């Protein structure tokens, strides 16, 4: 059994098939990229994996376990974290608070303990804070600890979102267009970080991306989608040379 | 300008971030403890109301300011706390039992109100909470065996372990102060722990919160329950302070006053509850004084400017008839809310922070420091 498997998954909105029996599997330690034109169903697949949507049919397996029926808020605890295409940070909180929310799935303290702020809560908080600091150092976010997200530039927000996902110590991270809206330099940084996430932290990466130069640089395998259906999969070069993929992007 | 050099994670966790705060809050607490011996009985009684309103303000800041769930039903929670106290006391249950019992009962009702909140947001949630408040008001008027209906209910003096605490005495003042300080500490502890951050996450992005492992339903219900329980405790104190409770004391206008407490004070920090409570409680005697004095003042000013005595008398009558018009208070409240939302959405506490920063940075303060930053489009698809 693969590390993560999507088995014949479909998602239907009324008459529209957003995702049409898509199957693929991701191996541990891999960087797997999903590409496709706008509206191909890439983000829908992410929303299915993070259980924001219920699939019409098909199954999802993570580490051999069926996660198709698990509620969305328990996905993070299993070890799947994600970022969002349009940045979903907690705008009116500091970056530190945002990253600490990333630790939420590891929170063990009870409400009554927190109200009294017992020593056990303080210990747990310091431990969370230490873990967050490791991520801050990993992604060079030191200047922004006490800054409100609302005041941060777009490029930094993108990185903060990746940091928040990493704070949950995931085994699989879903990156939804990590380079959208970034300039060339920031995209370069992002490509290094994506590789570091895989090699240094040992986190498997599943991403959706449009920037083909980034895809070519970091991906081990690529899956091309169009109209919710799989067009091709394989190495970046194979997929880009595939006639169906060329047709989907250039038109016939 | 003070720079706090951080060498320990505890420094991010502790409530008083540096030595200066020990001084300022210590002085504040000392003044509060000394106040009953310094001020007159009227002002002391007003301060007790400030404390009660501030407890409700803290409750609303947890619910509205931090969890983002608006409520116009907090007068009903106050009523439930007040009636629980009145009823239990009449059955001979001691204060030390019915005070926490009121909090628990109100908290349970709050959790029940929280359930519809799972599916409602924004204006629809406000409407649902108003409906809840009306239902409670109606129940209080009809359930005569417990509440004595519209006749109202007398609430006797608190008997704390054989020690009476009269509602005008110093002991009652200290009891309210203690409950207020306690609820502020409770709120602050909550806000620096995972639950508080989950509340903030729900406020700012439910989708992201869910993906980060936050059980939206559970935390919304928790937020409602905590907020209601605090309001219930304030209700017990309110009942004893008034010494008489009846359904028409807990109307929509009271809920609006509570919302005003946090809008005027600033909903993003617990300080706002206290500042807003001071404003709301003190604005009433101010308005009353204005109603009595402005017509006289206006008339004498007009006559000194050469107006005939009849004309001045007429002016005075017109002004006092405007001053005593029904609904004027509501109109003035509405105007105050609008002014704050338009010109100082962060409330008095936000204004205080700006003034403080001005002096800290003097002479380097930039005019655009607090200008609204550009906000980026957020995905509405996953809502």
From TrEMBL, chain A:
The UniProt GO MF terms for this protein read: ATP binding
Q: Which residues form a coiled coil?
A: none
* Regions that span the bilayer: none
Respond yes or no to whether keyword DNA-binding is given for this record. Answer: no
Domain of life, per lineage:
Bacteria
Q: Which SUPFAM superfamilies match?
A: P-loop containing nucleoside triphosphate hydrolases
Keyword Transcription regulation (UniProt): no
Q: Which InterPro entries match?
A: AAA+_ATPase (IPR003593), ABC_AA/LPS_Transport (IPR051120), ABC_transporter-like_ATP-bd (IPR003439), BCA_ABC_TP_C (IPR032823), P-loop_NTPase (IPR027417)
Signal peptide location: none
Pfam families the record matches = ABC_tran, BCA_ABC_TP_C
Outline the extent of the ABC transporter domain.
4-252
Query: What keywords tag this UniProt record?
Result: ATP-binding, Nucleotide-binding, Transport
- Name this protein carries in UniProt: ABC transporter ATP-binding protein
User: Species name for this entry?
Assistant: Reyranella aquatilis
* Highest classification ranks of the organism: Bacteria, Pseudomonadati, Pseudomonadota, Alphaproteobacteria, Hyphomicrobiales
Automatic annotation (TrEMBL), chain B:
**Which organism is this protein's natural source?**
Reyranella aquatilis
Keywords, in A-Z order: Cell membrane, Membrane, Transmembrane, Transmembrane helix
Mark the transmembrane ranges.
Answer: 20-40, 47-66, 95-115, 121-140, 171-191, 221-240, 252-283, 330-349
The record's annotation in InterPro entries points to: ABC_transp_permease (IPR001851), LivM-like (IPR043428)
Keyword check for Transmembrane, yes or no.
yes
User: What lineage does UniProt assign to this protein's organism?
Assistant: Bacteria, Pseudomonadati, Pseudomonadota, Alphaproteobacteria, Hyphomicrobiales
Give the way it sits in the membrane.
Multi-pass membrane protein
| Subcellular location as annotated | Cell membrane
Name of the protein this chain belongs to: Branched-chain amino acid ABC transporter permease
